[in-house]
Write a structure and sequence with these properties.
The protein is mainly beta and 569 residues long. The protein has helices at residues 2-11, 28-34, 43-47, 61-64, 152-160, 191-198, 430-439, 473-476, and strands at 76-92, 95-117, 123-146, 203-209, 212-220, 227-228, 234-235, 239-263, 267-296, 302-334, 337-344, 348-365, 372-377, 381-388, 392-401, 405-414, 420-423, 443-453, 458-467, 498-515, 518-534, 539-540, 546-547, 551-568. The two termini are 55 Å apart.
Length: 569
């Protein structure tokens, strides 16, 4: 939209400002966002829904269970390319909108070498290097919300309560006004409070003493609930609508060094060291259009506005690297049965965060007169931090049927409640880590995959995967009347919104063709997931009323077409 483009132009001015000290740690919401993985890999792996914990001899399977490399009897080199077709749909009361984007990906590439030995070549060692794309951040949502019962300005006002107004716009000893973000003390107010105060979107309550008006440390936003005031006059409630737009892009990639072996064609083992690379960018734009709102006026006080527009823009980028370790084993007691087990340590990330935000505001007085405009932007906020993603446990069983078919079943547990956020010096972000345990739990994933060899050259494959949601009721139900007792949801930066994901499903199918050492695989993968979007967290406002936030339902439908070409020798 034009307003969004204007906001982006305004925020460019912040790039020229000196980088300020960090004002926000990362939040549990960010930790969850950055710890996600999805079904990606070779076409054979994806067409069987990734049910490969008990299988091997695949360039993606050895990333899942390193023991899969021990099942190789020769060398393998392969390359996998894919096309993602993302359909992101937003549902709100009275409407919906769909954003579609198509991108190309390098899903997997790798090499495995094998050395066989023993009297009957029944021992072997294998080594390899693989690249895998773990996750692609590539989506856009937008929506128009109505029927909500409070404003983002009231939410920020509630967070600002208790802050001295003089700390929101500082002056030096000569009375010269300073840039409001020049306060680097430990007790400096949040930048969201400074943004909204200086752009005119919140203001402090006032008291009169001897004809002079003084500002207090209690704040009001623009939304009024209506009812009867202290003079018995009926007050009309504020009403309005909101727009939002979210853009995300980036990726998480992993480079694995694998080593494993085979003992008597019965026991297979493997270890893997993974190096990860992560890049994530998020832009968030949120605007409210209110009727009959309370307009804060300088130096203090309020004025009724017939119409007002408030806008918030937030930019956040995180990038860095990490490392993890994997170990696995596969047991084949008989040729028709394979049992697999693998454990993944957390990925220990070292990350850098960069972000800034901006606000714009205008209003039309109810009684006529001059309109008011205000705007504010932050400098760039940059700092380093560490993230430990969940550890994982995988178990699988696979059966070979009649020499022509394979049926494989996997179970995976991801300990999302054990994620950890730390400062770059290793100090725990205790508050955020406590909220991680409050908001998130371990997830269970089941995967079922099958393959049938129709001819010696042609194979047909299919699969299904289902993952439970990591969100606890304290997060999932926070923005409902049922969740009133759960309190506010902790977010960070200049983006007060949060998203809660439901269960995730994959339906997959594919074909495989091989001629001598050459093989070609093709897969189609369909992903479906719903989520809840909340513009800000529920809170208790200045009227002592508990308020939910504007919300919408989000749906991710992704289709992937994946092709692998490789050669075994």
């Amino acid at each position: 939209t034009q307003r969004f483009n204007n906001m982006k132009k305004l925020i460019l001015s912040a790039l020229a400002l000196t980088t300020a000290a960090a004002t926000f740690a990362q939040s549990p919401i960010d930790a969850m966002q950055l710890s996600q993985t999805e079904l990606r890999g070779t076409a054979r792996f994806m067409s069987m829904a990734g049910a490969f914990t008990a299988l091997g001899s695949d360039l993606s399977a050895i990333n899942q269970n390193p023991a899969g490399i021990g099942m190789y009897r020769g060398s393998d080199v392969g390359l996998t390319l894919g096309i993602d077709i993302n359909s992101n749909k937003t549902f709100w009361t009275g409407g919906s909108d769909t954003q579609t984007k198509t991108t190309a990906n390098l899903n997997n590439a790798g090499y495995v070498g094998t050395y066989n030995f023993g009297a009957a070549n029944d021992y072997s060692v294998s080594w390899g290097f693989t690249y895998n794309r773990l996750y692609r951040f590539n989506r856009m949502y937008n929506g128009n919300l109505s029927g909500f019962g409070n404003s983002l300005t009231n939410y920020i006002a509630s967070l600002t309560d208790g802050v001295n107004p003089e700390d929101l716009w500082m002056s030096d000893s000569h009375g010269k006004e300073l840039f409001p973000y020049d306060n680097y003390s430990a007790n400096a107010p949040d930048w969201m409070s400074i943004l909204f105060y200086n752009s005119g979107m919140i203001n402090s309550e006032t008291v009169e003493d001897g004809g002079d008006i003084y500002e207090t440390d209690q704040y009001r936003g623009m939304w009024q609930n209506g009812g009867v005031d202290s003079n018995g006059n009926r007050v009309r409630a504020t009403s309005g609508a909101a727009d939002f737009l979210i853009r995300e892009k980036g990726h998480a990639d992993e480079y694995d060094i694998n080593f494993g072996g085979n003992v008597k064609n019965v026991f297979y083992w493997g270890i893997s060291v993974g190096i990860t690379d992560l890049n994530w960018t998020r832009e968030y734009w949120y605007a409210e259009h209110l009727e009959n709102s309370l307009m804060p006026v300088a130096p203090a006080g309020y004025q009724l506005a017939s119409h007002s527009d408030t806008e918030l823009y937030s930019f956040h980028r995180i990038d860095g690297t990490g490392a993890n370790f994997k170990v696995g084993a596969i047991l084949k007691p008989i040729n028709e049965l394979r049992i697999g087990l693998a454990v993944h340590t957390p990925t220990y990330y070292t990350l850098s965060s960069t972000g800034f935000g901006s606000t714009m505001f205008n209003m039309t007085p109810a009684g006529g007169g001059r309109s008011f405009d205000g705007e504010e932007s932050t400098p760039i906020d940059s700092y380093d931090f560490n993230l430990n993603t969940p550890w994982k446990l995988m178990a699988g069983v696979a059966g070979v049927i009649g020499g022509r078919g394979i049926l494989s079943f996997d179970y995976e547990y991801d300990a999302f409640g054990d994620m950890k956020l730390k400062w770059d010096d290793g100090t725990d972000m205790t508050y955020n880590n406590d909220n991680i345990k409050k908001y998130y739990k371990g997830t269970s994933t089941i995967r079922l995959g099958g393959e049938f060899r129709a001819t010696p050259q042609l194979s047909i494959r299919a699969g299904y995967s289902y993952s439970t949601s990591a969100a606890k009721p304290e997060l999932k139900d926070a923005n409902t009347a049922y969740g009133k007792s759960y309190g506010e949801v902790s977010t960070a930066g200049q983006d007060p919104s949060y998203r809660v994901n439901d269960d995730t499903q994959y339906i997959t199918c594919g074909l495989g063709y091989k001629y001598q050492g050459l093989y070609f695989d093709l897969a189609y993968v369909y992903k479906h997931r719903t989520s809840a979007f909340n513009a800000f967290t529920p809170f208790t406002d200045a009227y002592a009323d508990w308020s939910t936030a504007p919300s919408a339902k989000l749906t991710d439908n992704k289709s992937q077409i994946v092709a692998t070409i490789g050669y075994r020798f």
